Amino acid sequence: MDFTIVDYYGPQKSKCGYCKGVQCSMGCGMHAYTMTPKDYQDLIDRGWRRSGHYCYKQDNTKTCCPHYTIKCDALNFKLSKSHKKIIKRMNRFLRDGKRGKNDEELNSSMTSEKPDGENMEVEMNNEGCGIRDVVEAPNVPLKNINLEAFAKANEKGKSNEKQPGVQKPKTNAMEIDKNSTQNNETPDNSKNSTDGANPPCKKAKQMRLERRLAKQAAKGLPAVIENKPSKSQEKSLKEFLNDAKPDDKHKLNFELIHVKSKEFFKTLPMTYALYKKYQTLIHKDPPNAEQEYLDFLQRSPLKLTKPSDGPPLGYGSFHQQYYLDDQLIAVAVIDILPYCVSSVYFFYDPDYSFLSLGTYSSLREIELVQDLASKVPALKYYYMGFYIHSCPKMRYKGKLSASYLLCPEAYTWHPLSDEIRLKLDANKYQRFNDDPLARDENEFEESDMDLVLLMIDQSSYVKYRQYRQRSMNLVAAIRNKIAGSDDHAAIVEYGKLVGKPLAHRMLYLKM
User: How many Cα atoms occupy the beta-carbon half-sphere of 474 within 13 Å?
Assistant: First the structure.
């Protein structure tokens, strides 16, 4: 059977990577020995995040820099002018190998600190697309668990218990309203009207068109006006990104590989060398040893699952490798889950900073979501980690259109609007759901304790009520006088953080 097995650590304090404070980042953590993609999807929809096998959730009411889960609706994403500019810069470089006149200046600025957070392109490159939402796992010895033996011992229960399937993700009413408004948007012609006092100023493009028509008339030629594409005919993100021609000077290719595949380990020397170069030149940090690199960016609790109605490569953890001709220049670390592509980390060759690879990678990942959604309709979101409004350098994540923040209390999604930004300016902790009666529909209460699943040894698991009944002997009673109340409190805390469905589905390690 497919199980998620977690060892809950409880409250954790650590150094904050955003305000640089010491022991002021507060939350709860757990180690995931193994995890199904469905369970991780449900965890991140409750504000959790993973760094390797370590999963953590910030306590936004107490922590120094509140973390709000952010996602982008990839099917309603609209390219901005700055996005188009970045894609055109890449396409121009691939076409003729030349840098633009401002690219050298941009390249030199990439490694400089931008504390005011005004330059989106610089931020996204400096921060490796900003997806640095990671905390250090506590130094807790791991349990010696034989996962294969446990799975084999519980295989007989496969036919007796119905595994939860992938359900349709919840959609907030505000999200539906916004999407319908975007899809049915009508052009506003009020800006083109005039009150008769002064004629509207002509744009340079219109003036060029009039001059061309005048020249044609002077030569006795018929006036020919090119049909400009309407808004409905505007090029898609896929068309903008994939504008390569056979005679281009450079070729940019992509390889999407699973983190436990032969291809991953074959390319490991290259990816690790690139990571070291990135850490040294961009973040000015000493690079991690190879084992630490693997713990952070390769090892994942997510099981590779390939359902018949899922994406071609299945659900799990992957690296998307960027090759310029035959040279590895960037790596995106991502999780493909039932409803989304979740961006974990991104690193690149600093020699190519002038290409704004941080921003470019986000656009490529949104395109990946759009492609996957054509095969798996529920998989239509791009998760960017955490939006941290109190850290100006991280606010760029909210600049992607059709972005939503997760309410930390009701766990509903809300468009990232100027109104929400103003509220966060006034108070860094906010409940985004304005309905005071709205509650977490998966709220865990103490009465739900009996159905919590506990892994009690290498071959079996029981429900909490069975565990409690088994413990009603003298030896257990003496032991429980000392530790039982603390166990009970920890399980209740864990249940409230993960929600009732997950508390009744994942295995809480009790060994």
Answer: 0
